[in-house]
């Protein structure tokens, strides 16, 4: 049974605890302010990634991409609310893995972390593949493997230098992406105003008589990955200067900014091209639209801006994956000697950064369709258990169970659970099979490591700030 700190111990110990975590050798360093967290989250989501999936989702939803984004944004807000609750209790690295481990059960927490790790470990690989695809289109004579190695090499180098530099780089990279996106939207609006392609501003991209709930759910399930940046921010709780305050704020700022951006961009694109099947390449719909609205010159600018997205996204994806492995290694869920250490000078988990880089190199042997099919499964499992963790915190740790507490700690996260299970059930068969195999491998590993669950689970520390809710 977890032992909770007393009110006085929590109140008196906050400053010493923060000081110890900030300055103790071998621990992650608290250097990130709110603006760093927001830009890291936005960079992780790669604002220009909205263009990657537009053609595919437009076909899936029969021309209702903005509606699918609106649905998934509402769904993510429920889960974000639960993340903001949990980070106040557990302002430590690990995200969904840590929350499930601390609030529910250590063995279950490991399995949640194992499933979530699949997403984190493979995203840098997909990022490298996208880099090679886009750059190969501009420089067809350069081999595919050159762009893969260059992308992974730059991202790894910046992560090894330290999280502060990587965060500062993301401010620049996200800014460039936003400028390109704004130009894209303005040019699209000008084309619509001029009647290009017979387009007019209507509410059809959000609602029409032929809307199919199943197709919107399938599109939303794909687009949910666009919002994974807020989850990545929660893994940096031990490197934020004021995690209890700034992580929740960053989460909602990221979702609000990203949601408005995604919906605006896809609305004007869908308005200009309500039927994407008229385009030559549905998968490459966005570059084709860029050329349509601004000519070859803007298409070149568009691709250049996309490469800024690739670089910023790769830095933060590798950063988050390395810190998830660190949290699991530190607690003994993975071999501590390899995964649980950090460089005392830079505060970077060097071994984990290099491991993630090595996995990303599989981009040399895997195509984009194969890689993308592996990602969706773990995200919804992790989101579901974050919501469940809030409910468990309510029944295990809270003493004052007011009507407001019931709503905030039971009703809202329960709705989040149902929404995530609904979206999870909308995934394609390949994603289910690959995700199921990965989960089964995690169960086998855990059975062996714990000798059939007979070995004791890692010690639980309990919520650090439980007093604020009692």
Automatic annotation (TrEMBL):
The chain crosses the membrane at residues 37-58, 64-83, 104-130, 142-163, 170-193, 213-237, 249-269, 289-315, 346-365, 377-398, 405-424, 430-448. Keywords: Membrane, Transmembrane, Transmembrane helix. The keyword Acetylation does not apply. InterPro entries: AA-permease/SLC12A_dom (IPR004841), APC_superfamily (IPR050367). It is found in: Membrane. It is a multi-pass membrane protein. Pfam families: AA_permease. The keyword Membrane applies. Residues 36-439 form the Amino acid permease/ SLC12A domain. This is APC family permease. It comes from Leucobacter rhizosphaerae. The lineage of its organism: Bacteria, Bacillati, Actinomycetota, Actinomycetes, Micrococcales.
């Amino acid at each position: 049974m977890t032992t909770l700190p007393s009110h006085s111990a929590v109140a008196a110990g906050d400053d010493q605890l923060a000081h110890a975590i900030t300055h103790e050798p071998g621990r992650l360093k608290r250097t990130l302010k709110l603006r760093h967290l927001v830009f890291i989250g936005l960079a992780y989501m790669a604002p220009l990634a909205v263009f990657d999936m537009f053609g595919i989702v437009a076909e899936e939803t029969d021309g209702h991409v903005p509606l699918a984004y609106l649905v998934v944004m509402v769904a993510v807000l429920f889960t974000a609310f639960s993340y903001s609750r949990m980070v106040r209790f557990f302002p430590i690295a690990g995200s969904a893995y840590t929350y499930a481990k601390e609030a529910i059960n250590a063995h279950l927490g490991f399995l949640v972390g194992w499933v979530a790790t699949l997403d984190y470990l493979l995203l840098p690989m997909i990022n490298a593949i996208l880099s090679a695809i886009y750059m190969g289109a501009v420089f067809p004579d350069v081999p595919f493997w050159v762009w893969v190695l260059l992308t992974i090499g730059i991202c790894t180098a910046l992560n090894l230098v330290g999280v502060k530099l990587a965060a500062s780089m993301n401010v620049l990279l996200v800014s460039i992406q936003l400028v390109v996106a704004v130009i894209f939207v303005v040019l699209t609006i000008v084309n619509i105003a001029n009647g290009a392609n017979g387009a007019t501003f209507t509410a059809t991209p959000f609602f029409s008589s032929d809307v199919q709930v199943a197709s919107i759910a399938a599109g939303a399930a794909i687009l949910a990955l666009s919002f994974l940046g807020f989850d990545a921010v929660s893994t940096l709780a031990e490197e934020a200067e004021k995690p209890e305050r700034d992580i929740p704020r960053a989460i909602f700022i990221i979702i609000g900014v990203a949601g408005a951006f995604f919906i605006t961009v896809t609305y004007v694109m869908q308005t200009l091209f309500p039927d994407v099947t008229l385009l030559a390449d549905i998968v490459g719909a966005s570059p084709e639209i860029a050329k349509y609205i601004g000519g070859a010159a803007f298409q070149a600018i568009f691709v250049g801006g996309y490469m800024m997205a690739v670089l910023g996204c790769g830095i933060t994806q590798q950063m988050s994956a390395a810190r998830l492995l660190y949290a699991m290694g530190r607690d003994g869920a993975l071999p501590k000697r390899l995964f649980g250490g950090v460089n005392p000078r830079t505060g970077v988990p060097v071994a984990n950064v290099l491991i993630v880089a090595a996995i990303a190199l599989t981009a040399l042997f895997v195509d984009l369709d194969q890689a993308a099919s592996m990602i969706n499964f773990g995200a919804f499992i992790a989101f579901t258990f974050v919501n469940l963790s809030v409910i468990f915190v309510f029944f295990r740790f809270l003493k004052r169970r007011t009507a407001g507490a019931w709503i905030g700690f039971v009703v809202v996260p329960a709705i989040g659970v149902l929404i995530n299970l609904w979206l999870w059930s909308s995934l394609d068969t390949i994603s289910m099979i690959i995700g199921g195999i990965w989960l089964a491998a995690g169960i086998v590993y855990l059975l062996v490591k714990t000798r059939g669950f007979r070995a004791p689970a890692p010690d639980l520390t309990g919520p650090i700030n439980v007093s604020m809710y009692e």
